[in-house]
Protein backbone atom coordinates (compact mmCIF):
# COMPACT_ATOMS: atom_id res chain seq x y z
CA UNK A 1 0.00 0.00 0.00
CA UNK A 2 1.40 3.36 -1.02
CA UNK A 3 0.41 5.93 1.57
CA UNK A 4 2.93 8.77 1.68
CA UNK A 5 2.37 11.69 4.03
CA UNK A 6 3.14 15.12 2.60
CA UNK A 7 3.12 18.36 4.49
CA UNK A 8 2.88 22.06 3.81
CA UNK A 9 6.41 22.62 5.02
CA UNK A 10 9.63 22.37 3.07
CA UNK A 11 9.51 21.45 -0.61
CA UNK A 12 12.06 18.70 -1.16
CA UNK A 13 12.36 16.99 -4.54
CA UNK A 14 8.70 17.63 -5.29
CA UNK A 15 7.43 16.12 -2.03
CA UNK A 16 6.05 18.26 0.80
CA UNK A 17 7.33 17.17 4.19
CA UNK A 18 6.77 18.33 7.75
CA UNK A 19 9.38 18.31 10.49
CA UNK A 20 8.38 14.86 11.86
CA UNK A 21 8.76 13.36 8.38
CA UNK A 22 12.17 14.89 7.61
CA UNK A 23 13.96 11.90 9.12
CA UNK A 24 12.69 9.73 6.25
CA UNK A 25 13.16 12.16 3.37
CA UNK A 26 15.25 11.41 0.32
CA UNK A 27 16.50 13.63 -2.49
CA UNK A 28 14.97 11.51 -5.23
CA UNK A 29 11.44 11.18 -6.61
CA UNK A 30 9.24 8.39 -5.32
CA UNK A 31 7.98 5.71 -7.75
CA UNK A 32 4.30 6.46 -7.10
CA UNK A 33 1.14 4.36 -6.96
CA UNK A 34 0.07 4.03 -10.61
CA UNK A 35 1.57 2.49 -13.72
CA UNK A 36 1.96 5.96 -15.23
CA UNK A 37 3.73 7.37 -12.20
CA UNK A 38 6.12 4.41 -12.28
CA UNK A 39 6.78 5.08 -15.96
CA UNK A 40 7.55 8.69 -15.08
CA UNK A 41 9.91 7.53 -12.33
CA UNK A 42 11.67 5.08 -14.68
CA UNK A 43 11.97 7.82 -17.30
CA UNK A 44 13.38 10.18 -14.68
CA UNK A 45 16.00 7.61 -13.65
CA UNK A 46 16.92 6.81 -17.28
CA UNK A 47 17.48 10.48 -18.11
CA UNK A 48 19.35 10.97 -14.82
CA UNK A 49 21.85 8.21 -15.59
CA UNK A 50 22.30 9.43 -19.16
CA UNK A 51 23.12 12.88 -17.76
CA UNK A 52 25.47 11.33 -15.18
CA UNK A 53 27.28 9.41 -17.95
CA UNK A 54 27.59 12.56 -20.07
CA UNK A 55 28.91 14.49 -17.08
CA UNK A 56 31.47 11.81 -16.24
CA UNK A 57 32.76 11.69 -19.85
CA UNK A 58 32.87 15.47 -20.36
CA UNK A 59 34.43 16.34 -17.02
CA UNK A 60 36.71 13.30 -17.19
CA UNK A 61 38.14 14.39 -20.54
CA UNK A 62 38.38 17.99 -19.35
CA UNK A 63 40.23 17.18 -16.12
CA UNK A 64 42.47 14.64 -17.86
CA UNK A 65 43.38 17.25 -20.49
CA UNK A 66 44.13 19.84 -17.83
CA UNK A 67 46.32 17.39 -15.89
CA UNK A 68 48.12 15.60 -18.75
CA UNK A 69 48.80 18.70 -20.85
CA UNK A 70 49.67 21.18 -18.15
CA UNK A 71 52.23 23.91 -18.78
CA UNK A 72 54.60 22.59 -16.08
CA UNK A 73 55.27 19.55 -18.30
CA UNK A 74 56.33 21.77 -21.15
CA UNK A 75 53.15 21.50 -23.23
CA UNK A 76 52.35 24.43 -25.49
CA UNK A 77 48.82 25.35 -26.48
CA UNK A 78 47.86 24.21 -29.97
CA UNK A 79 46.92 26.86 -32.50
CA UNK A 80 44.21 25.69 -34.85
CA UNK A 81 40.94 27.05 -36.17
CA UNK A 82 37.97 24.86 -37.11
CA UNK A 83 37.92 21.11 -37.37
CA UNK A 84 35.28 19.60 -39.62
CA UNK A 85 35.36 16.16 -38.01
CA UNK A 86 35.01 17.55 -34.47
CA UNK A 87 32.13 19.83 -35.47
CA UNK A 88 30.28 16.95 -37.14
CA UNK A 89 30.79 14.75 -34.07
CA UNK A 90 29.62 17.32 -31.54
CA UNK A 91 26.50 17.85 -33.64
CA UNK A 92 25.63 14.21 -34.37
CA UNK A 93 26.38 12.77 -30.92
CA UNK A 94 24.14 15.20 -28.91
CA UNK A 95 21.40 14.79 -31.54
CA UNK A 96 21.56 11.00 -31.18
CA UNK A 97 21.45 11.28 -27.38
CA UNK A 98 18.39 13.54 -27.58
CA UNK A 99 16.62 11.08 -29.87
CA UNK A 100 17.39 8.22 -27.46
CA UNK A 101 15.94 10.31 -24.61
CA UNK A 102 12.91 11.45 -26.63
CA UNK A 103 11.66 7.98 -27.59
CA UNK A 104 10.68 6.79 -24.07
CA UNK A 105 9.60 10.32 -23.08
CA UNK A 106 7.23 10.55 -26.04
CA UNK A 107 5.78 7.11 -25.33
CA UNK A 108 5.12 8.09 -21.71
CA UNK A 109 3.50 11.40 -22.69
CA UNK A 110 1.25 9.72 -25.26
CA UNK A 111 0.10 7.27 -22.60
CA UNK A 112 -0.49 10.07 -20.06
CA UNK A 113 -2.76 11.95 -22.50
CA UNK A 114 -4.81 8.92 -23.57
CA UNK A 115 -8.07 9.32 -21.65
CA UNK A 116 -10.09 6.92 -23.81
CA UNK A 117 -11.87 3.82 -22.47
CA UNK A 118 -12.35 5.30 -19.00
CA UNK A 119 -14.47 3.23 -16.62
CA UNK A 120 -15.23 6.04 -14.14
CA UNK A 121 -15.70 9.72 -15.02
CA UNK A 122 -15.47 12.45 -12.38
CA UNK A 123 -15.90 16.15 -12.98
CA UNK A 124 -13.57 18.14 -10.70
CA UNK A 125 -14.34 21.81 -10.11
CA UNK A 126 -12.07 24.13 -8.15
CA UNK A 127 -13.62 26.76 -5.91
CA UNK A 128 -12.10 29.27 -3.51
CA UNK A 129 -11.08 27.21 -1.56
CA UNK A 130 -12.31 23.66 -1.95
CA UNK A 131 -13.00 21.02 -4.57
CA UNK A 132 -16.29 19.67 -5.90
CA UNK A 133 -16.44 16.13 -7.26
CA UNK A 134 -19.33 15.09 -9.51
CA UNK A 135 -19.61 11.47 -10.63
CA UNK A 136 -20.97 11.31 -14.17
CA UNK A 137 -23.57 8.78 -15.28
CA UNK A 138 -21.98 7.50 -18.49
CA UNK A 139 -18.18 7.04 -18.58
CA UNK A 140 -16.59 8.43 -21.72
CA UNK A 141 -19.15 11.24 -22.04
CA UNK A 142 -19.75 14.62 -20.44
CA UNK A 143 -23.29 13.83 -19.31
CA UNK A 144 -25.21 14.77 -16.19
CA UNK A 145 -23.79 13.83 -12.77
CA UNK A 146 -25.38 11.06 -10.73
CA UNK A 147 -24.25 12.65 -7.50
CA UNK A 148 -21.65 15.09 -6.25
CA UNK A 149 -20.20 16.64 -3.13
CA UNK A 150 -17.73 19.26 -1.91
CA UNK A 151 -14.42 18.30 -0.37
CA UNK A 152 -13.39 20.75 2.37
CA UNK A 153 -10.34 21.03 4.60
CA UNK A 154 -10.92 19.01 7.78
CA UNK A 155 -8.03 20.46 9.81
CA UNK A 156 -9.38 22.41 12.78
CA UNK A 157 -8.72 26.12 13.32
CA UNK A 158 -7.19 25.19 16.70
CA UNK A 159 -4.44 23.29 14.89
CA UNK A 160 -3.92 26.04 12.31
CA UNK A 161 -3.55 28.73 14.98
CA UNK A 162 -1.36 26.54 17.21
CA UNK A 163 -3.94 26.20 19.98
CA UNK A 164 -3.45 22.43 19.93
CA UNK A 165 -0.94 19.90 18.60
CA UNK A 166 -0.96 19.15 14.90
CA UNK A 167 -2.66 15.94 13.76
CA UNK A 168 -0.83 13.47 11.52
CA UNK A 169 -2.45 14.75 8.33
CA UNK A 170 -2.24 18.44 9.17
CA UNK A 171 -3.62 20.55 6.28
CA UNK A 172 -3.95 17.38 4.20
CA UNK A 173 -7.23 15.92 5.43
CA UNK A 174 -10.74 16.57 4.11
CA UNK A 175 -14.30 15.85 5.15
CA UNK A 176 -15.25 14.15 1.85
CA UNK A 177 -12.42 12.55 -0.15
CA UNK A 178 -12.69 11.47 -3.76
CA UNK A 179 -13.35 7.72 -3.77
CA UNK A 180 -12.30 5.51 -6.70
CA UNK A 181 -12.18 1.76 -7.36
CA UNK A 182 -8.84 -0.03 -7.51
CA UNK A 183 -7.81 -1.28 -10.95
CA UNK A 184 -10.24 0.93 -12.91
CA UNK A 185 -9.32 3.72 -15.32
CA UNK A 186 -10.61 6.99 -13.87
CA UNK A 187 -10.95 10.04 -16.12
CA UNK A 188 -11.05 13.49 -14.52
CA UNK A 189 -12.62 16.50 -16.23
CA UNK A 190 -11.07 19.52 -14.54
CA UNK A 191 -12.44 23.05 -14.51
CA UNK A 192 -12.86 25.94 -12.05
CA UNK A 193 -15.66 28.21 -10.90
CA UNK A 194 -13.71 31.37 -10.12
CA UNK A 195 -9.92 31.51 -10.59
CA UNK A 196 -7.26 29.07 -11.83
CA UNK A 197 -6.60 26.16 -9.50
CA UNK A 198 -4.38 23.10 -10.00
CA UNK A 199 -5.20 19.52 -8.96
CA UNK A 200 -2.01 17.74 -7.85
CA UNK A 201 -1.43 14.23 -6.48
CA UNK A 202 2.32 13.37 -6.66
CA UNK A 203 1.81 9.62 -6.36
CA UNK A 204 -0.34 9.67 -9.51
CA UNK A 205 2.15 11.85 -11.43
CA UNK A 206 -0.74 14.25 -12.01
CA UNK A 207 -0.65 18.04 -11.85
CA UNK A 208 -3.33 19.57 -14.05
CA UNK A 209 -4.70 23.13 -14.07
CA UNK A 210 -8.41 23.75 -13.44
CA UNK A 211 -9.29 26.83 -15.51
CA UNK A 212 -12.65 28.68 -15.57
CA UNK A 213 -14.41 28.13 -18.89
CA UNK A 214 -12.14 25.25 -19.95
CA UNK A 215 -12.17 21.48 -19.46
CA UNK A 216 -8.84 19.72 -19.00
CA UNK A 217 -8.66 15.93 -19.04
CA UNK A 218 -6.39 13.58 -17.16
CA UNK A 219 -6.61 9.97 -16.03
CA UNK A 220 -5.19 7.51 -13.54
CA UNK A 221 -5.58 3.90 -12.47
CA UNK A 222 -4.59 3.05 -8.92
CA UNK A 223 -2.91 -0.31 -8.41
CA UNK A 224 -3.20 -0.64 -4.64
CA UNK A 225 -5.86 0.36 -2.09
CA UNK A 226 -4.86 3.33 0.00
CA UNK A 227 -5.19 7.02 0.71
CA UNK A 228 -3.31 9.40 -1.57
CA UNK A 229 -2.86 13.08 -0.76
CA UNK A 230 -2.04 16.23 -2.66
CA UNK A 231 -2.86 19.92 -2.81
CA UNK A 232 -3.87 22.80 -5.03
CA UNK A 233 -0.63 24.05 -6.58
CA UNK A 234 -1.83 27.25 -8.25
CA UNK A 235 -1.88 30.42 -6.16
CA UNK A 236 -5.63 30.96 -5.96
CA UNK A 237 -6.19 33.39 -3.10
CA UNK A 238 -5.75 33.79 0.61
CA UNK A 239 -6.68 30.20 1.53
CA UNK A 240 -4.69 28.56 -1.26
CA UNK A 241 -2.69 26.61 1.35
CA UNK A 242 -5.89 25.16 2.83
CA UNK A 243 -7.17 23.34 -0.27
CA UNK A 244 -5.96 19.74 -0.05
CA UNK A 245 -6.73 16.83 -2.36
CA UNK A 246 -7.48 13.40 -0.88
CA UNK A 247 -8.20 10.29 -2.97
CA UNK A 248 -9.25 6.99 -1.41
CA UNK A 249 -8.81 3.88 -3.57
CA UNK A 250 -10.93 0.95 -2.40
CA UNK A 251 -11.82 -2.52 -3.76
CA UNK A 252 -14.62 -2.70 -6.36
CA UNK A 253 -17.23 -4.25 -4.04
CA UNK A 254 -16.67 -1.54 -1.43
CA UNK A 255 -16.82 1.11 -4.15
CA UNK A 256 -20.15 -0.25 -5.45
CA UNK A 257 -21.61 -0.01 -1.95
CA UNK A 258 -20.23 3.53 -1.53
CA UNK A 259 -21.84 4.60 -4.84
CA UNK A 260 -25.18 3.14 -3.72
CA UNK A 261 -24.93 5.06 -0.43
CA UNK A 262 -24.10 8.28 -2.26
CA UNK A 263 -27.08 7.88 -4.59
CA UNK A 264 -29.35 7.33 -1.60
CA UNK A 265 -27.91 10.38 0.17
CA UNK A 266 -28.39 12.51 -2.98
CA UNK A 267 -32.01 11.40 -3.24
CA UNK A 268 -32.65 12.21 0.42
CA UNK A 269 -31.05 15.62 -0.09
CA UNK A 270 -33.45 16.35 -2.93
CA UNK A 271 -36.37 15.37 -0.70
CA UNK A 272 -35.34 17.89 1.96
CA UNK A 273 -36.84 20.71 -0.11
CA UNK A 274 -40.32 19.47 0.76
CA UNK A 275 -39.63 18.84 4.44
CA UNK A 276 -41.26 20.94 7.16
CA UNK A 277 -38.30 22.47 9.01
CA UNK A 278 -38.10 24.06 12.44
CA UNK A 279 -35.96 27.08 13.19
CA UNK A 280 -33.68 25.02 15.42
CA UNK A 281 -33.11 22.39 12.70
CA UNK A 282 -32.20 25.02 10.11
CA UNK A 283 -29.86 26.85 12.50
CA UNK A 284 -28.08 23.61 13.42
CA UNK A 285 -27.60 22.65 9.76
CA UNK A 286 -26.74 26.22 8.81
CA UNK A 287 -23.91 26.37 11.33
CA UNK A 288 -22.21 23.43 9.60
CA UNK A 289 -22.75 24.93 6.14
CA UNK A 290 -21.41 28.30 7.30
CA UNK A 291 -18.28 26.69 8.75
CA UNK A 292 -17.43 24.94 5.47
CA UNK A 293 -18.56 27.58 2.97
CA UNK A 294 -18.53 31.04 4.57
CA UNK A 295 -16.22 31.17 7.60
CA UNK A 296 -13.05 31.35 5.48
CA UNK A 297 -14.01 34.88 4.38
CA UNK A 298 -16.46 36.19 6.99
CA UNK A 299 -14.81 34.61 10.04
CA UNK A 300 -16.03 32.01 12.51
CA UNK A 301 -17.93 34.70 14.42
CA UNK A 302 -19.27 36.58 11.38
CA UNK A 303 -17.08 39.61 12.10
CA UNK A 304 -15.54 39.69 8.60
CA UNK A 305 -12.25 41.48 8.05
CA UNK A 306 -9.68 41.97 5.29
CA UNK A 307 -12.18 43.37 2.81
CA UNK A 308 -14.94 40.93 3.72
CA UNK A 309 -17.96 42.57 5.41
CA UNK A 310 -19.22 41.75 8.87
CA UNK A 311 -22.50 39.82 9.14
CA UNK A 312 -23.16 40.91 12.72
CA UNK A 313 -26.00 43.38 12.99
CA UNK A 314 -25.79 44.50 9.37
CA UNK A 315 -28.99 45.61 7.67
CA UNK A 316 -29.00 43.05 4.87
CA UNK A 317 -28.72 40.19 7.38
CA UNK A 318 -31.15 41.46 9.99
CA UNK A 319 -33.85 43.13 7.85
CA UNK A 320 -34.21 42.49 4.10
CA UNK A 321 -34.73 38.75 3.60
CA UNK A 322 -35.00 38.94 -0.20
CA UNK A 323 -31.80 40.95 -0.48
CA UNK A 324 -30.05 38.47 1.81
CA UNK A 325 -31.18 35.53 -0.35
CA UNK A 326 -30.11 37.36 -3.51
CA UNK A 327 -26.59 37.95 -2.23
CA UNK A 328 -26.10 34.36 -1.07
CA UNK A 329 -27.71 32.75 -4.14
CA UNK A 330 -26.45 35.06 -6.90
CA UNK A 331 -23.32 36.59 -5.36
CA UNK A 332 -22.22 40.19 -5.83
CA UNK A 333 -20.67 41.15 -9.16
CA UNK A 334 -17.27 42.80 -8.91
CA UNK A 335 -16.58 41.46 -5.42
CA UNK A 336 -15.22 38.26 -3.90
CA UNK A 337 -18.74 37.18 -2.92
CA UNK A 338 -19.44 34.02 -4.89
CA UNK A 339 -22.81 32.82 -6.17
CA UNK A 340 -23.69 29.86 -3.95
CA UNK A 341 -26.93 29.08 -5.79
CA UNK A 342 -25.21 26.44 -7.90
CA UNK A 343 -22.89 25.24 -5.15
CA UNK A 344 -25.34 24.46 -2.35
CA UNK A 345 -28.65 22.65 -2.23
CA UNK A 346 -31.89 24.48 -1.41
CA UNK A 347 -31.75 22.98 2.09
CA UNK A 348 -28.20 24.20 2.68
CA UNK A 349 -28.95 27.65 1.27
CA UNK A 350 -32.01 28.02 3.49
CA UNK A 351 -30.09 26.74 6.49
CA UNK A 352 -27.10 29.06 6.14
CA UNK A 353 -29.30 32.12 5.52
CA UNK A 354 -31.39 31.24 8.58
CA UNK A 355 -28.25 30.69 10.64
CA UNK A 356 -26.76 34.05 9.65
CA UNK A 357 -30.01 35.80 10.60
CA UNK A 358 -30.03 34.17 14.05
CA UNK A 359 -26.35 33.96 15.04
CA UNK A 360 -23.87 36.32 16.77
CA UNK A 361 -26.62 38.38 18.41
CA UNK A 362 -28.67 38.96 15.26
CA UNK A 363 -31.59 36.98 16.75
CA UNK A 364 -34.23 37.88 14.19
CA UNK A 365 -36.19 34.69 14.97
CA UNK A 366 -36.82 34.51 11.21
CA UNK A 367 -36.36 31.39 9.11
CA UNK A 368 -36.01 30.83 5.39
CA UNK A 369 -37.26 27.44 4.19
CA UNK A 370 -35.82 25.35 1.34
CA UNK A 371 -39.16 25.77 -0.49
CA UNK A 372 -38.78 29.57 -0.33
CA UNK A 373 -35.26 29.30 -1.73
CA UNK A 374 -36.49 27.02 -4.51
CA UNK A 375 -39.25 29.45 -5.43
CA UNK A 376 -36.83 32.39 -5.31
CA UNK A 377 -34.38 30.64 -7.65
CA UNK A 378 -37.11 29.76 -10.12
CA UNK A 379 -39.14 32.98 -10.12
Residue-averaged pLDDT, rounded? Answer: 86
Give, in order, the helices and strands. EEHHEEEHEEEEEEEHHHHHHH
Oligomerization: single chain
Q: What amount of the residues lies in strands?
A: 15-25%
Shape: elongated
Structural class: alpha+beta
Spans of at least 5 consecutive residues with low confidence: 1-23
Please report the distance between the alpha carbons of the first and last residues.
52 Å
User: Residue share in helices?
Assistant: 25-40%
- Main β-sheet description: 5 strands, mixed
Count helical runs: 10
Plain-language structure description:
This protein has helices at 35-68, 84-112, 157-160, 252-271, 279-293, 295-298, 315-318, 321-330, 346-356, 370-377, and strands at 10-12, 15-17, 120-127, 130-136, 145-151, 178-181, 186-192, 197-201, 206-210, 216-220, 226-232, 244-250. Helix 1 (35-68) packs antiparallel against helix 2 (84-112). The chain is built from ten helices and twelve strands. The strands form three sheets. The protein has a five-stranded mixed β-sheet. A five-stranded mixed β-sheet has the order 6-12-11-8-9, covered by helices on one side. A two-stranded antiparallel sheet has the order 1-2. The two termini are 52 Å apart. It is elongated and about 100 Å long. The model is unreliable at 1-23 (pLDDT under 50). The longest helix has 34 residues, at 35-68. By secondary structure, the chain is α+β, with helices and mostly antiparallel strands.
Amino acid sequence: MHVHVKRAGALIAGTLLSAPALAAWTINMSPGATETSNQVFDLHMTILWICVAIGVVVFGVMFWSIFAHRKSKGHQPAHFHENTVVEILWTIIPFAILVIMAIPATATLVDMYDTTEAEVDIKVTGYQWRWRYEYLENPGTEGDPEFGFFSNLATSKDEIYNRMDKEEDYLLDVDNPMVVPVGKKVRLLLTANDVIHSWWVPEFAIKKDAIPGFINEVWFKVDEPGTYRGQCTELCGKDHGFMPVVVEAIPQDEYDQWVADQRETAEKERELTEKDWTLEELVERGERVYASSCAACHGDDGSGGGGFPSLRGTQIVTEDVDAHMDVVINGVSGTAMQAFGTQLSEADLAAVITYERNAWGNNTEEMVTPKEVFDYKNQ
